[in-house]
Write a structure and sequence with these properties.
Elements lengths: L1 E2 L7 H13 L10 H7 L6 E5 L13 H5 L4 E6 L11 E5 L5 H11 L4 E6 L5 H11 L3 E12 L10 H5 L7 E5 L11 E7 L1
Parallel strand pairs: 1-7, 2-3, 2-5, 3-4, 5-6
Antiparallel strand pairs: 6-8, 7-8
Helix pairs in contact: 1-2, 4-5
Length: 198
């Protein structure tokens, strides 16, 4: 596992990402994910997909961040909960159960020829679900493109995907497991998996 400081740092880009995440009420800044995103996110994205749309009572939802970070991009979202669907310009959301192979396959059929510059898995945080989703959606990632898996636990906690889970299946090239908060010894799950296509 690498630390976010092992990669190049663009303070301006990091602040911009953090500000946008704050503006939409996203919890991504609680994990300091802007530290990782600032290095791996492209400067332009035409299509973004985020799985897992935790919609808080105040209406905040991180899916709203992507059109602000990438003006003009078409953002797709997927979640199993009908209460989390968002209907806004440049945002399309779909009912998808990450725990169901059939639901994922149906979603891929709906996507048709659509390919994504960025895919973010912030859904169940369960390794089997995230791995199944990754295997099915990786062909939908453009080249170049980047695929993120958020909320990876540093060590086993009984329910959540872990660094060891991902470390066992990722290739040694074009991927990194990155700790966004290495300075916080008691942090549970501020680790991200980053996979990119050159």
């Amino acid at each position: 596992m690498k630390k976010w400081t092992d990669f190049s740092i663009d303070p301006y880009k990091m602040l911009k990402i953090q500000t946008v995440f704050h503006s939409v009420g996203s919890d991504k800044t609680c994990h300091n994910y802007e530290r990782v995103y600032q290095h791996f996110l492209p400067d332009f994205a035409g299509h973004v997909l985020e799985l897992g749309l935790a919609n808080y009572s105040n209406g905040s939802n991180s899916i709203r961040a992507w059109p602000k970070l990438f003006p003009g991009c078409l953002t797709y979202g997927a979640d199993w909960n009908t209460d989390r669907m968002v209907i806004e310009e440049n945002i399309k959301t779909f009912l998808v159960d990450q725990g169901s192979p059939a639901s994922l396959d149906d979603f891929i059929t709906i996507l048709g020829d659509t390919l994504f510059d960025v895919i973010v898995d912030d859904a169940s945080h369960n390794f089997l679900n995230s791995c199944r989703t990754f295997v099915r959606l990786l062909p939908k990632l453009k080249s170049p493109g980047v695929y993120f898996v958020e909320d990876v636990a540093r060590k086993e906690n009984g329910w959540q995907q872990t660094v060891a889970d991902w470390d066992n299946i990722l290739p040694p090239f074009c991927s990194a497991i990155v700790d966004a908060r290495p300075e916080i010894a008691g942090d549970v799950d501020s680790v991200m998996v980053c996979i990119w296509k050159p």
